[in-house]
Design brief:
- There is one protein chain.
- This protein has 243 residues and is of the alpha/beta class.
- It folds into two domains: 36 residues, no CATH class; 194 residues, Dihydrofolate Reductase, subunit A (3-Layer(aba) Sandwich), CATH 3.40.430.10.
- It has five helices and eleven strands.
- An eleven-stranded mixed β-sheet has the order 3-2-1-10-11-9-4-8-5-6-7.
- The longest helix has 13 residues.
- The chain starts with a strand and ends with a strand.
Amino acid sequence: MDSTVMWGRRTASGLEFVETSTSSTRRARVAIRSPEPDGQRRTEDTVRKIVVNEWMTLDGVVQAPGSAEEDPTGGFGHGGWHLPNFDERSRRWVIDNISAAGGFLLGRRTYDILAAYWPTAPRAERELADPLNHRPKYVASRTRTQRLDWHNSRLIEGDIAKAVSAMKEAGAGDLHVIGSPHLVHTLLAHELVDEFRLMIDPLMLGAGKRLFPDDGTPRSLRLHEFEVTATGAVLATYAVAVA
């Protein structure tokens, strides 16, 4: 069966689009000039970025993508919606993103889900398990009192926004948020998110926890690169525009 994949990336002259068909080696390229507006360049290259990694539906739902048991809160009955679109290309995209992280920012529920699986994950999943198990994990929770047993995990104490802002100024490697929509809302409210890396599935659910808050605040994003997978999902990276 013929399958066509399209992808794009930002270059010095704008956005370059590439379309590849599995039935032939023919490749069509077109470069569209899309210069970065003045004032939207980050000059503080030494500051760690906060990168939000999410599997998301077209209507912004990020709740329980992996299984029905993952997060049924609020009566959510569509858990596992992401799995039909998770192909080998998507898996490699996830591995590349997780491997690039210097550490992870997690909400309490996401931490509990990941901590219950990855410390004893099978060897076949080592590419994902190694960075998740060994790199620093910072957990945002106002109610957690139990000890964090997952290796190299620590609770964020005090004001979350102030703590994350301080983390951006110290340490090495970008900090990646996985899941944790309530944490993402907090970070967005304090203008701490630098980048979104989204796998957007060709699906709308109409209910569930959403990535973006309904707070009436407009936020400009800049497309950095994208790829359309064989299932019709979009792997997109957006940088948060700086005023």
